[in-house]
Design goal:
heterodimer; A: 2 domains; 6-stranded parallel β-sheet; 4-stranded parallel β-sheet; about 45% helix; globular; B: 4 helices
Chain lengths: ~350, ~100
């Protein structure tokens, strides 16, 4: 069960992979969602169709990343319950821009306390998330990495995107990349600030690509206004949600991945960037230090000048850059679909063994 | 938030911190520049958050007008609405900051 499911979304992709793995383990597995986005119809049932069978054979695996009525259905359901916790964005980070989302975030954290007594086993995306579950009273928790669709990023880059990005690259200047929802807690405005400093001090030809679907219209509008006010409208691209082929093209052409999020429960794009051999510079907050490990540059603060100087030194020093790229590839191997799937299956077996 | 203990990144951050100090000393990038960036984003945020409210007000005006204004008076209505929507366009152009 999942509150809402949509294409090109990390939690939704994770849910589809979990379903495939459960079926491979021999279970009958169906996905039920309160909101079904375009592209998911036919693969997901409306929540209203969820059977309520008290025969002990029905289990619920609830994908938790926001509050809402789905959690109440989970609590009321007679079946055994497992929770898959992706973390819930703290309300103060989003409510200025999206007041209803702030409400849902607050509700989600309250619902965690209702879920704790009825959930027999919980899976957490990171140790950071597991610690939050323990604080909320979940008795049995294990860390299961993010489940990526193995075939997704093995696709070739879309030639038209590659050509477009390659042409810009040929004119010189570094390509900064961040991939993630265009949302206030992902702090793309801080990336723009650091990028503005970098352009002024180190590299006047640099470009910034902020790839991802927007969460509401106000924040992305603010980013566009900000870029225009700084005279960086042509240097900063906000292409929205892109195809897998286009995303691969961005990863193939990026020089550095910069993540200045104020909150992440895991941050899958960091791992994707590492696997593509892109050095990662990230603000050390929430689960980010755990996701980056020792394979990237973790920033103790995100003042524009510090971020810009770190990126400049990283790109100017081939030795440090290649060491970080090698460390990143090694680190990303811990999250390959095969490894993550094996951990997920072991966790499900452990959950089944709980009396 | 802890300091990064990672051996590869630690010297990089230390060197970057020294760069930041040099930039400030030479005036190439100072605390005032950072503060101006903060203010610029805040202005953008205020404008972006105000725009949907103005759009909603404009939509409401249209709905009310459609209901109460006869078809023969619609050309005048359009001109009136264009006038009523003028502040929205001004905000979008960013000239009223």
């Amino acid at each position: 069960m999942i509150p809402s499911i949509i294409e090109h979304d990390a939690v939704s992709n994770h849910t589809f992979v979990a379903q495939r793995l459960l079926r491979e383990m021999g279970f009958v597995s169906e996905i039920y969602a309160a909101i079904i986005g375009p592209g998911c119809a036919g693969r997901v049932h409306p929540l209203s169709e969820l059977p309520f069978l008290a025969d002990g054979r029905q289990w619920i695996l609830y994908q938790c990343s926001i509050g809402g009525p789905t959690a109440d259905v989970v609590v009321r359901h007679p079946g055994r319950k497992l929770l898959d916790y992706h973390n819930i964005t703290p309300a103060p980070l989003v409510e200025r821009w999206l007041p209803p989302l702030g409400e849902e975030s607050r509700l989600g954290r309250q619902q965690l306390q209702l879920l704790a007594p009825v959930v027999s086993y919980a899976l957490a995306r990171s140790a950071y998330n597991a610690a939050e579950l323990a604080e909320n009273g979940f008795a049995r928790t294990t860390v299961v990495p993010f489940l990526a669709d193995g075939g997704n990023l093995e696709q070739s880059a879309d030639p038209s995107w590659l050509e477009r990005l390659g042409k810009a690259q040929a004119r010189g200047g570094a390509d900064w990349l961040f991939v993630g929802q265009i949302a206030p807690h992902k702090a793309q405005h801080d990336v723009i600030k650091a990028f503005a400093c970098y352009r002024r001090v180190y590299d006047a030809d640099a470009r910034l690509h902020l790839v991802g679907r927007e969460m509401g219209s106000a924040y992305i509008d603010a980013l566009r206004r900000f870029a225009a006010a700084l005279g960086l409208k042509d240097a900063i691209s906000l292409p929205g949600s892109v195809s897998v082929g286009a995303l691969v093209a961005y990863y193939e052409t990026a020089d550095v991945f910069v993540c200045l999020s104020d909150h992440e429960g895991f941050c899958a794009p960091i791992v994707e960037a590492m696997s593509w051999g892109i050095p990662v510079v990230a603000y050390a907050v929430a689960a980010v230090p755990e996701t980056v490990g020792e394979a990237g540059v973790l920033l103790p603060d995100k003042s524009p000048a510090l971020v810009a100087s770190v990126v400049h030194r990283l790109l100017a020093d081939p030795s440090t850059r290649s060491s970080l790229v090698a460390a990143g590839r090694l680190h990303a191997a811990r999250y390959t679909p095969g490894v993550a799937s094996a951990v997920f299956c072991r966790a499900i077996e452990a959950a089944l063994a709980v009396p | 938030m802890s300091e990064n203990p990672e051996p590869l990144a630690a010297p990089l951050i230390a060197a970057a911190r020294a760069d930041v100090e040099r930039l400030a000393t030479t005036g190439r990038w100072t605390a005032a520049d950072a503060a101006e960036l903060d203010r610029a984003f805040e202005r953008s945020a205020t404008g972006a958050l105000r725009a949907p409210r103005l759009a909603e007000r404009s939509l409401l005006l249209r709905r009310i007008a459609r209901r109460f204004v006869p078809a023969s008076a619609r050309p005048y209505l359009r001109r009136m609405l264009a006038f009523a929507e003028r502040p929205l366009r001004v905000v979008r152009a960013g000239t009223n900051r």
